Amino acid sequence: MTEVLLCWHSKGNGLVVLEQAIKSLRNRRILVDKVVYLVQEADLNIPATLEGASIEGIELSVEDPTKHEDIYALVKDNVLPRVFECEGTLHVNVSPGTPAMHSVWLILHAGGAFPVGTRLWSSQYSRETKRARIDPVNFAVNTYLSEINKLQRLEPERAIYEPDALSPVRRSALDRLARYSRVTGAPLLILGERGTGKTRLVETYVTTLKNCENVVTVACGGLDSTLAESVLFGHHKGAFTGAEQDRKGLLAEAHGGILFLDEVQDLPKLVQRKLVRVFQDRKRRYRPVGSDKEEIADFELVCASNLSVDELRKRLDDDFFDRLSHLVVQVPSLRECREDLRGDWLKVWREIRQRGDLPLEAPWSVALEGAMKNHPLPGNLRDLQRLAVLVIAWWNRADLDATLESALQEWSRWTPSTILDSTFGNGSRSERTKWFRARLAQWAKETYSTWVAAGEALDCDEKTLRQDVVFLRRENS
Fold it and tell me: Which helix (H) or strand (E) holds 40?
C-alpha cells in the first residue's frame, strides 16, 4: 500500500525535519512513498526525492502565517483536492509550521476533511542529541461535519449540501439544523421552497445527527383521506371492508428511527387531530384501526413543508401545528446563497453524470458563471439538475463553449420574468420590510461576529439590529 506524507516546510530547519520524519516513520515500519510538501517560498530548491520518497511541492502564498482562516482556506481549496487524488494511506505531520498551521490540521481532521484512515503525527528533533522521534496524535474528536463528510465520500454521487457552507445564511441554517437535530423527543420542522433539498437534508444531516438509519418517509400529499388513518396507524383484520388481514402501519415501521412527514400541510385534518395525542405523548402511544389495545412506537418526528410559517399555521389544525413548531429550521433558497452555487453545481453534475465520456468536474465558463449569478432559480436544485441534463444533451467534447451556449439558451427559455414572491418575504409591504430588516440584521451579526461591530458597519445602533431580528425569530417560532 502507498504511504503518503503531508506536511509544511520547516523554514527554520529546512529539509532536516522532513528527512527525520521519513526516517522516524520508517522505524515504525511505515515506508513513505510520496511527500506532499507545502512551501511558502517560490524559489525554494526542493529535491525530487528524499530518503526514497518522491516529493511534490505545492506553493501556497501565505501573507500572514498566524491567520487561521487564511491558512484553512488555502489548504482546503488547494491541498485537499490534490490529497484525494493520491492513492494509499495519508499521514500528516502536524509539527512543522506556525501554531496556526498546527491548529488547522487538527480542525480539518476533526471536521472529517481528510480521507478515511488518515493518521496524524507529531515529530520532534533534538539538535543536542541529534535524535528524532515521531509520535501518533490521538485527536479523536468527532463532529457532525466529519460524519457528513464521511457520508459524502461513501456516496459521492449524491448532491449533498456542503456542511462548510460559504454563504452566512446557509451556514446559519445548517448550524441550526445540527443544533435542533440533537434534541431527542422533540418534533423538528423544516421549511423551504420546493427543490431546496429538504428531503435530502433529512436523509443525510438529520439521520446522521440523530444516529438513526431507519427513515420512514410519508408523502402526505399522496395519502388517500379515507385510508390515511390505516396507512399510518395500521389496522386489524376485519376493521373495515377489505381489511382481510392485520396490517402494520407506518408509525410501527418507524419504531427506533425517524418518521418523516413530507409536505405535512397535505395531511388530512382528521388524521392531524388523531396524531396530536401521539406526538404529545412521550411514549408515542396510538391505537390501530379496529383495535381496543394501544401500542407504542418509539420514533423521532421530522416534518417538512414548502409553505411559510404563517401559511402553514392556516393549513394545519391549531393543536397539531403547536406540537410541530417548537424547533423550526428555514432552508434558504439557492438565490440567497449565490456564494455556494458553484459547489452546488459540482455536486448536482456528479449526481446526474452517468456516462464515462463526461468529465468528473462540472463544466464551467464565464457565461455559465453569469447565468448562475442572475437566474432566479425558482426550482432551486431542480433548476441545476435541468441545466445538467441539458449540458449532457448538447455535449460536444470538441467545443465546450458551444455546448454550454446551447444548454444555457434552452435553460433561459424557461426562466420566469420575475423573481419568486418569497424572495422578499410574504404579506404586506410593511411585513416584507420587517422581513428584509430582520434578514439584514441577522446577516450583519453573522458577518461581523458581534452586535456592536455589526451596528458600526451599518452605521446604526446595535439595539436597533437586535429589535429587527426579533421579527425573524418570532416568524420562525
Answer: none
The residue among 132, 92, 131, 136 whose CA lies nearest residue 113 is: 92
CA distance 51 to 19: 7
Give me the helix-helix angle, 381-393 and 400-413, nearest 10°: 130
Residues 86 and 169 in one domain: no
Is residue 418 a part of any domain in this protein? no
| Integer Cα distance of 384 and 95 in angstroms | 43
User: 371 with 415: CB under 8 angstroms?
Assistant: no
| Number of domains within the chain | 4
Instruction: For residue 138, give the DSSP letter.
Output: -
β-pair partners for 10: 14
Q: Which residues contact 40 (CB under 8 A, 6 or more apart)?
A: 9, 11, 59, 60, 61, 62, 65
Range of the domain at 389: 354-411
Please give the sequence-ordered ranges of beta strands (E in DSSP) within 32-118, or none if there are none. Answer: 34-39, 49-50, 53-59, 89-93
Q: Let me know: does 386 contact 351? Beta carbons within 8 Å.
A: no
Q: Are residues 103 and 172 both part of a single domain?
A: no
160 lies in a domain?
yes
Among the candidates 109, 136, 163, a domain finishes at: 136
pLDDT in tens, 84-139: 888 889 999 999 988 889 888 888 887 778 887 889 999 986 667 777 889 998 86
Q: Is 168 domain-assigned? A: yes
Same-domain pairing of 7 and 37: yes
Alpha helices in 13-118, H assignment, sequence order: 16-27, 68-74, 80-85, 99-110
4 contacts 32 by C-beta, under 8 angstroms: yes
pLDDT tens digits, one per residue of 325-355:
999 999 999 988 998 999 899 889 988 887 8
Strand pairing report for 119-126 and 53-59: unpaired
